[in-house]
Write a structure and sequence with these properties.
The protein is an alpha/beta fold. Helices cover 55% and strands 17% of the residues. The protein has eleven helices and eight strands. An eight-stranded parallel barrel has the order 1-2-3-4-5-6-7-8, surrounded by eight helices. Helix 5 links the parallel strand 4 and strand 5. Helix 8 packs parallel to helix 9. The longest helix is centred in the C-terminal third of the chain and has 19 residues. The chain starts with a strand and ends with a helix. The chain binds SN-glycerol-3-phosphate. SN-glycerol-3-phosphate binds next to helix 7.
């Protein structure tokens, strides 16, 4: 399973990258806006830190506008993946970009039928948002299970990128279902390490060691 970090914060990206577990980065307009930096300059910074797919989202909603933005963003670096919203015009852009060998990440996916459309258009990644579904009393993980099964049934090459992850169980369940990628906020990456028995065990090992070495 590939691990992407879901952030536009360069310090978080550097820290996760230094752990040696990072395969890529996803951003979205809200995350980029939070950083208050020029988008293209920020992307140029990110590609220097992580040698893997970096998702950059378009903000137009018409075919021509999205295509223009996509081509400009793709020109920044070969690792840039164009994030496109799951709307009819967006799916047309995905089809066009797939014909030009430009990688795409179809975002704001909340149903299996939407995921089928993205696969048929030749998307590189589909991003179902599990946390936002849970927020409205729908099961985000049920959607992942459906998409993984459908894509396996037909051998679709589109990779399932689980997004809107809120806690470690989202990641564990995604891995059990065979999702290809999880994009994880930095705070959740930190939580993946946590176990009270690890802390208690380490404290005891170190205390026992100190006692013996004082003698
Ligand atoms: O980047 C897309 C997605 O991961 C956003 O997550 O937490 O805003 O629902 P969230």
């Amino acid at each position: 399973m590939k691990f992407f970090i879901d952030t536009a914060n360069i310090d978080e990206i550097k820290e996760a990258s230094s752990m040696g577990i990072l395969d890529g980065v996803t951003t979205n307009p809200s995350l980029v806006a939070k950083e208050g930096k020029n988008f293209k300059e920020l992307l140029e910074e990110i590609v220097k830190v992580v040698d893997g797919p970096i998702s950059a989202e378009v903000v137009s909603t018409d075919y021509e506008g999205m295509l223009k933005e996509a081509e400009e963003l793709a020109a920044i670096h070969p690792n840039i993946v164009i994030k496109i919203p799951l709307i009819p015009e967006g799916i047309k852009v995905v089809k066009t970009l797939s014909g030009k060998n430009i990688k795409t990440n179809v975002t704001l996916c909340f149903s299996a039928s939407q995921a089928i459309l993205a696969a048929k258009a030749g998307a590189t990644y589909i991003s179902p948002f599990v946390g936002r579904l849970d927020d409205i009393s729908h099961s985000g993980m049920d959607l992942i299970e459906q998409i993984v099964q459908i894509y396996n049934n037909y051998g679709y090459q589109t990779q399932v990128l689980v997004a809107s992850i809120r806690h470690p169980l989202h990641l564990v369940e995604s891995a059990m279902m065979g999702a290809d990628v999880a994009t994880i906020p930095f705070s959740v990456i930190q939580k993946l390490f946590s176990h009270p028995l690890t802390d208690i065990g380490l404290e005891k090992f170190l205390n026992d060691w100190k006692k013996q070495n004082k003698k």
